[in-house]
Design a protein that fits this description.
about 260 residues; mainly alpha; 3-stranded mixed sheet; two-stranded antiparallel sheet; 5 strands; about 5% strand; globular; transferase
């Protein structure tokens, strides 16, 4: 059994100004994504050039933050929003949803693609291999904060989280998600997209793999207390929201390799 290292969530404190590790992980994710985007933009088949990568990621950052916050409110904690509407704006109190962020990013890619006269799926195929970097960085932020812990377990690497309501050893599910949704997803997508693929293929692979990885990880992660299990004593909101991703991803890949135009 291990103990959570209890890292101070505040990385830098300058008087009233406090910079949290969670915010820094987002910054690292966007910075590495920007660098990798410039690397991808050097390929002759990509839809954007190196100068456009920064603008594209700015739109995506807005999509992540706005979509992620709205998604958390709607999917996971709508009752709290109804009781305290201003809570929506207090993002420093935590509460972001990947699935909401995905919707925000999709809108941002559509908007930017329209601006430069490029189809949505060409932009999405360019962006997809960059996303796992941010996902992985965010999960490290969750681990530092000691939040989103896993279910009780007796495996040797089970970890006691002080913020949990008991002293039970739990799966460090944040690290599982970092390994699958961050590292594994990045490696597969980066290698797959290293040469030209049919339009929609990279996006489809991203949706399929992320959805599958998220469904798997939810079996180890403690469900959000305000929701619990939705059905069968195992179905979580994260799994329910991931199933359409898997279906959509498989459909996109079929369309891509059958030559269906986007």
């Amino acid at each position: 059994m291990l103990n959570h290292p209890q890292i101070d969530p505040v990385a830098i404190s300058l008087g009233p100004l406090k910079i949290h590790w969670y915010g820094l992980t987002y910054l690292v994710g966007f910075a590495v994504g920007w660098w990798l985007g410039k690397v991808r933009a050097r390929k002759e088949w990509t839809p954007v050039n190196e100068q456009q990568v920064g603008d594209l990621l700015f739109y995506i950052a807005l999509g992540v933050i706005l979509g992620g916050r709205f998604g958390y409110v709607v999917f996971y904690n709508f009752d709290q929003f109804l009781g305290d509407p201003l809570w929506l704006l207090r993002v420093w109190e935590g509460g972001m949803s990947f699935h909401g962020g995905l919707i925000g990013v999709m809108f941002a890619m559509w908007w930017y693609g329209r601006k430069i006269g490029c189809g949505f799926f060409r932009i999405a195929d360019f962006v997809a291999p960059l996303v796992p970097v941010g996902l992985g960085a965010g999960r490290i932020g969750n681990f530092i904060n000691g939040e989103l812990w896993g279910k009780p377990t007796d495996v040797p690497w089970g970890m006691v989280f002080p913020q949990a309501p008991d002293a039970l050893a739990r799966h460090p599910s944040q690290l599982y998600q970092f390994a699958l949704e961050g590292v594994a997803l990045f490696v597969v997508l980066w290698l797959f997209s290293s040469k030209p693929r049919p339009t929609m293929a990279v996006s489809g692979l991203f949706l399929t793999l992320y959805g599958c990885f998220r469904v798997i990880n939810e079996f180890f992660r403690q469900p959000d207390p305000q929701l619990g299990y939705l059905a069968f004593d195992w179905l979580t909101m994260g799994q329910l929201l991931s199933l359409p991703m898997i279906i959509a991803g498989l459909v996109l890949m079929v369309f891509a390799y059958r030559g269906v135009k986007s």
